[in-house]
Design brief:
Blueprint (H helix, E strand, L loop, with lengths): L4 E4 L4 E3 H25 L10 H20 L3 H23 L6 H17 L3 H16 L1 H10 L2 H17 L16 H26 L4 H11 L1 H14 L4 H26 L4 H24 L19 H25 L1 H11 L4 H11 L6 H26 L2 H26 L1
Antiparallel strand pairs: 1-2
Helix pairs in contact: 1-2, 1-4, 1-5, 2-3, 2-4, 3-4, 4-5, 7-8, 8-9, 8-13, 9-10, 9-11, 10-11, 10-16, 11-12, 11-15, 11-16, 11-17, 12-16, 12-17, 13-14, 13-15, 14-16, 15-16, 16-17
Protein name: MgtC/SapB family protein
InterPro entries: DUF4010 (IPR025105), MgtC_SapB_SrpB_YhiD_N (IPR049177)
Organism: Echinicola jeungdonensis
């Protein structure tokens, strides 16, 4: 059966079935936005735009777009202006009663546009915008609460991060250069952006969630920033308050387990081929750390609970990110040099030393070189060894800085981690 077109032009075609499907979608969009707006209004208060109003606004945009194909496209402009006037008048009336806020007025304007875009066939885009609009509308109180807690320093940090990400990174050369032809300025810039971004994310999560959810959650989010920082802070805390040694061990083991997740993230971004044989060994290391932390967390104790906060420091530490970028470049050159001069043995030695300070840089560097400068198997062994070497740092900090009880917890917990690491090494090679 031949389809009947309601509109059939060179640029746009619409069947009756398409018309009714899009009409139903537009009605659903209006219902969703209207329900949220009416539900958000105070009880017994006259609602400027509720369920029915928003349905009609979306349908108005839908029909205006339809009629613009039959008459003139200027109808869309006229319809948009009329909705803007309607929203402006409603805002003026509300402001006379001391109710300042234009969210609903702009939501009405957005609803009109969504009706038009739905008619034009941009279904996925319309639904995506609807979801974003609903999320933003429903998060009024949480967002206002967060904004009230943001300091000027944190806001400035966000601005700096956006400027660097959108203005500086794109202009960096996207070509390899330098010794061994392995340095790419744009890749190094991307690494710096990722590092500072993860640090900034960890800072925000720690500020709004860390202290309130207890020491376990603080360790998890602290691990996003630096598991070494977590180890240092809680090792000192255990010495200051010995009764909290078990809780501090939980935070250190949890943060160190998060480090394994970061290794997976870097491999996913830079070289997914490495994940194959490493998935099981790293999963064993992760489960060993999490298992030990969970055991200590659930173990009965007469010691009081603690909701410890890590020192937040700077929200966006660009110096640290830049240093990491230089460290990444240096490790890239070091590994390349060691590989060319000493072969596979040199890669293991240089990577093990580099991992004592940071696991991220060596993971990224090796991931990038794997398959070119040396084999995938060599890279997998290097990453696993580097992960265990980096864990040695946390053990050293805990033993040297922490209480005697913390040392016992850490040695038992990380002892299990090392056993799983050795098992993983055997799995990879045998």
């Amino acid at each position: 059966m031949e389809e009947t077109f309601m509109i059939d032009t060179d640029d746009f075609q619409l069947t009756q079935m398409d018309f009714f499907i899009r009409l139903l979608i537009a009605t659903g969009i209006g219902l969703l936005i209207g329900l949220e707006r009416e539900h958000a209004s105070p009880e017994k208060e006259e609602v400027f735009a509720g369920v029915r109003t928003f349905v009609f606004v979306v349908l108005f945009g839908f029909l205006i777009a339809f009629l613009s194909f039959l008459f003139t496209h200027w109808l869309i402009v006229a319809g948009l202006i009329s909705v803007m006037v309607y929203g402006g008048l409603s805002y003026w009336v509300k402001s006379r009663d001391g109710k300042i806020g234009g969210t609903t007025a702009f939501a009405t304007l957005t609803a009109f546009i969504l009706g038009s875009t739905t008619f034009l066939g941009f279904i996925e885009a319309s639904l995506a915008v609807t979801v974003i609009a609903l999320v933003m509308l429903s998060l009024k109180e949480p967002l206002h609460s967060i904004v009230r807690q943001i300091t000027q320093i944190e806001l400035f940090a966000l601005v700096k991060f956006v400027v660097i990400s959108l203005l500086v990174l794109p202009v960096l050369p996207d070509e390899t250069m330098g010794p061994y032809d392995v340095l790419n300025p744009q890749e190094v810039g991307w690494v710096i952006i990722l590092t500072s971004g993860i640090g900034f994310l960890g800072y925000i999560l720690m500020k709004f969630l860390g202290g309130k959810k207890g020491i376990l959650l603080t360790g998890i989010f602290g691990g996003l920033v630096s598991s070494t920082v977590v180890a240092w802070v809680f090792a000192e805390k255990s010495k200051e308050i010995k009764a909290l040694s078990k809780n501090c061990a939980v935070a250190i083991l949890t943060a160190s387990s998060i480090m394994v997740i970061r290794v997976f993230v870097w491999m996913t971004i830079f070289n997914q081929e490495l994940i194959g044989k490493l998935a099981l060994p790293l999963a064993l290391v992760f489960l060993a750390g999490v298992g030990a932390a969970f055991y200590y967390y659930k173990k009965p104790s007469k010691d009081p609970d603690i909701n410890a906060d890590l020192p937040l420091g700077e929200p966006l530490n660009l110096k640290k990110a830049l240093f990491f970028g230089l460290l990444y470049s240096g490790i890239l050159l070091l590994v390349s040099y060691a590989n060319s001069q000493l072969g596979t043995k040199g890669v293991y030695i240089s990577s093990g030393i580099a991992a004592l300070t940071d696991i991220n840089a060596i993971t990224i560097s090796v991931s990038k070189l794997a398959g070119n400068s040396f084999s995938i198997l060599t890279a997998q062994n290097v990453i696993l060894i580097a992960t265990l070497c980096n864990t040695l740092v946390k053990i050293g900090i805990s033993i040297s800085v922490g209480s005697k009880s913390l040392r016992n917890y850490i040695l038992l917990g990380f002892g299990l981690v090392f056993l799983m690491g050795i098992a993983g090494f055997l799995i990879i090679n045998f």
